[in-house]
Records
---
Amino acid sequence: MIIDGFVFAPLAVVLFASTGVFGLIMHPDQDFGAMFAAMFGITMIAAFTVLFAGNWLYHTAMESSRYRATLGKLAMGSIVTDLNGNRISFARANGRFFGKWISSAVFNIGYLVAAFTEKKQALHDILAGCLVIQK
């Protein structure tokens, strides 16, 4: 969802914009090119770690919370449930989150599976035993 992507966009901007700036402030007499390269590498590792962990926690915590949906799903009027319509556990939300990697593999074919299943479940929903339904 586009809305969910914007949740971490400000953090990504700050992390990427800070590349090299802190090094310049601390050591203004140093070679900017070398410092930029080093800080860029460190920032990329930090950004990947923070954004991955944040994305993982955001999706799993929101979908297993009383809201049962991310902000994007809430805006669309959808919720994530187990097969009986109950709130999913944090463990099941984890399975759904990491199952999206499998759904994304090979040209997102795991998402296309939803078009051919009775309950309109993508592959990651089938693997985690979840449904995305309209409220």
---
Amino acid sequence: MKLLIIEDDITLNRLLAGHLQSLGYEVLSASGGAEGLELAEKAKPALVILDIMMPGMDGWQVCRRLRTTSTVPILMLTAKGAQEDVLQGLELGADDYLKKPFDLRELELRIEAILRRSGAGAMRDQKNVFDDGILRIDLERRQVVRRGQAVHLTPTEFRLLSYLMRQRGRVVPHQELLTEVWGPEYVQDTANLSVYVRYLREKLEIVPGEPRYICTEWGVGYRFDTLSGGSPDGLPGPAHT
């Protein structure tokens, strides 16, 4: 489930992005209105978290522009909490309004409520939970259970598994995984990626050398396979990653 944050306070922007990513959301961030509109057009997020008080193009203008082309749900964030400001936001097409400072748990609940109303909540549940009777992964609760036993994953292992699972069924290229999980400066570190894939297989697979969940597309990347009995592909070495 993809969310877009449009917030000019970089510290708050990063705080919100990190927290929402820990809940299993895919998060895009913009620090200004024009950048946010461009990202909204390209990425088609399920929800936009929009700050009002921004220099240049403020949140009111962004909301008005979004509503000319999109029905994407909008949650407005602002230090302004007067009734007339709330009404203005709702009249422009915002779906909800949260006054700063706010509790992160309240933000979570408002996002979940908006997504349920928009019909995106069911899609999010499907993408965030995998259960084939042997392995259960719940990204929102950060729970991984294999044959009834809890599996401990390091933060990096969980980020890698989360990204693969959200892209389930698709071969994710090595460079994309390295950028999303470790950062763009690690884009050539395929040996490190291979090591972490091996760690995950040792913890999740029935037979690590014959993976059924995290499968290799030789020379391209990895795929989280939702079909039981995925074809064995051996353990990848650095020469193939």
---
Amino acid sequence: MTIIAIIPARGGSKSILKKNIRSFCGKPLVAHSILTALSCSNLDRVIVSSDDPDIIDVSLEYGAEVPFTRPKKLAEDDTLDLPVFLHCLELLKEHEGYEPDIIVQLRPTSPLRTVEMIEEGIKLLIDNSEADSVRTVCKPSQNPYKMWKFSDNGFLNPLLDTDIKDSYNQPRQNLPDVYWQNGYVDVTRRTTILEKNSMTGDRILPLVVDSQEIVDIDNEITFRLAESIFLSRNRRGTS
């Protein structure tokens, strides 16, 4: 069974200029995902998909493979993951005759992920033959049972249609457990991507991770928060 990691890292970040190669605790942001992947015992290859020459240079410097340059049309703000991964898999098959069994998506904006998360996600998929994919989830800071949307007449309507009476007025402990897909690790079978034309399929296994160290980096505040957690974790590890 062949298992690869693909790190999608486009160059056109709007929220943080040159985000994927910006220094994060002394290394370019994308380098953290590369180095964590290279430390995994069950990954055969670590590939970066990028349209940006600077990201490509940094990725090669830190040990990733960059066997192609991603077309600009697959690096727009609204580009979905699926066409990016289809492009990668098609080129690997066309130019190398290489068809990995399992693909691990590692977004470069998740430098706090650990080797253990990746290896556990891979093992979970391998051990469950009926699953299409595995993705990391955690408890969210806000509960969707207490969320609202605006109606056409300007009043609030509950976001969720539920049998729970006045769910938005219930204490959290009376509401069903919910989980947020945090994007730290996604593990998918090649057949799920190619035959189901999906990054997840419909049989998705959860890998529950601790929400205390999950940060979605999308602005300056979350960037600095993630750095603070990263440094604190390293200090604990060396104390």
---
Amino acid sequence: MPELPEVQTTVDGLNKYLVGKKITSVWSDYNSSYFDGKENIKNKKYFSLFKKTVLNSPIKKSERVGKNILIHLKNGTSILVHMKMTGHFLYGEYKKNNKGWLPKESGALRDPFNRHIRLVLGLDNGKSLVLSDMRKFAKVMFIKTKALKDHPDISNIAPDPFQLSMKGFIEKIRQKKSGRIKNILMDQSLVSGIGNIYSDEVLFNVDLHPETDISAINEKKLGEIWVRSKKILSKGIDLGGDSTSDYRNIEGKRGNFQKKHQVYRRSGQSCPKRGCLGKIIRKVVGGRSAHFCNKHQKLVETKIKK
């Protein structure tokens, strides 16, 4: 699933290419009776309303809220997109044939992971913004821009590490009285933006075992997690996101953060920390895979004295 750096990279691409462009056509093959009555373009009736609402409106700007993308239109409507596991936006000149939607140009847009086109927003410059979503999990809906702050899809999103002070971050994390730090870092109701990849990398950098209980971690170490979270997420943005799996940027190109992994998907390899003789191992923690060094990432078991 795209995490904060991948979503921010996408938003940066949207702002680079789409500002001022008018939506002139809308197509989608999302359609599921499971979503009947729900605010989602997979609901056929809702899609008809979505299409009428966004047509002929220029795009004002885009922004990120947590892992959500907001595309603000000049008609006072915002398109909300959560890319979920396999969704990513692409921009280019597309044509439709009996095989589906294909980019006219050769190159990155023809990457196999970019072929699963589920939504096409035609633009007044002859190009299109398309959503590739292999597993069809992405969420797309519209909300009146003025109502965004009160809409549950936005109002319930926790702040991300960049929006919090060290004190605020610690207070958020401490809302959980117990629980494994790996899972707490990925709890979007506490702090948004961190998922499987970046939580592994952060915990490696602060020498913490992913199963360490929050009750055993002192304030100094939690502050260190905040600092490292911001540095590693910033690095992810600078490198254009992580394309270990199917994420691609708006130009159809891979990000490069996966080239800098220290632990994620490196099980069986030697620990990259200087002087450490450990090995990277993989273990399922709370239903999610965790990658960590079996030597220097110590499992702290003693609870902090109150």
